[in-house]
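Need residues for this backbone.
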C-alpha cells in the first residue's frame, strides 16, 4: 500500500485534507502513511481515531496548565436536534490564552439543570476537575445565564469561583444585526 492508494478515490473532505497536507510537504504525515505500508489496512487515519487523538492532546494540555474555563452555546441542527458547542479556554505555560473547541454535545432538553448535568458529565468524561474552573461563558438566554435556574447558577452551586461572563461576541452580533435592519419608510 502506498500513499496514493491509502488516500485514493473520493473519500470525503477529511481524506482530501490529508492528501493536501501530504502534497504540501507534511513530512510527519507522509512518514506515518509510509510506516503503515507494512500493516496493510492499518493507517490509523480514520476521523474517529484522529478525533480521539486530538481531543486527548487538548485535554493533556488543559490538565497540565490546571485552570480552564468553559464556553458553550446551544444550537438546533437541521434535523431539529438540540445540541451544544463545548469549548475550553486556558492559559498555557507561555501565558498565551488558548481556546479549543472540543465538540458538539446532544441535549435531551434545554433546561438549565439538564444542560448543567450534561456539562458536568462532559467535564468528568475528560477527567477535568470543577475545582479548577474559574470561569464560564454562555449567551444571555435565561436557561444559560439565569440567576436561579440558569446553567451558570447551577455551576456556581458546584464551584463558587466559576465566574459567569456573558459572551461579548454574542452581544456584538446582536447589536450588529439590529444596526443593519432597514427602517420602514
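Answer:
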Amino acid at each position: 500500500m502506498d500513499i496514493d492508494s491509502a488516500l485514493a478515490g473520493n473519500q470525503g473532505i477529511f481524506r482530501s485534507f490529508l492528501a493536501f497536507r501530504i502534497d504540501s510537504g507534511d513530512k510527519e504525515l507522509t512518514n506515518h502513511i509510509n510506516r503503515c505500508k507494512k500493516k496493510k489496512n492499518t493507517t490509523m487515519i480514520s476521523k474517529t481515531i484522529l478525533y480521539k487523538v486530538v481531543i486527548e492532546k487538548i485535554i493533556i494540555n488543559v490538565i497540565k496548565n490546571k485552570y480552564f474555563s468553559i464556553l458553550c452555546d446551544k444550537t438546533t441542527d437541521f434535523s431539529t436536534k438540540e445540541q451544544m458547542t463545548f469549548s475550553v479556554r486556558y492559559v498555557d505555560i507561555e501565558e498565551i490564552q488558548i481556546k479549543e473547541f472540543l465538540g458538539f454535545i446532544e441535549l435531551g432538553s434545554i433546561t438549565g439543570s439538564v444542560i448543567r448535568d450534561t456539562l458536568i458529565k462532559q467535564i468528568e468524561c475528560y477527567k477535568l476537575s470543577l475545582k479548577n474552573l474559574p470561569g464560564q461563558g454562555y449567551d444571555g438566554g435565561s436557561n444559560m445565564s439565569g440567576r436561579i435556574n440558569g446553567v451558570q447558577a447551577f455551576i456556581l452551586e458546584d464551584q463558587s469561583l466559576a465566574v459567569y461572563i456573558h459572551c461579548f461576541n454574542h452581544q456584538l452580533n446582536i447589536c450588529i444585526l439590529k444596526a443593519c435592519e432597514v427602517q420602514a419608510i
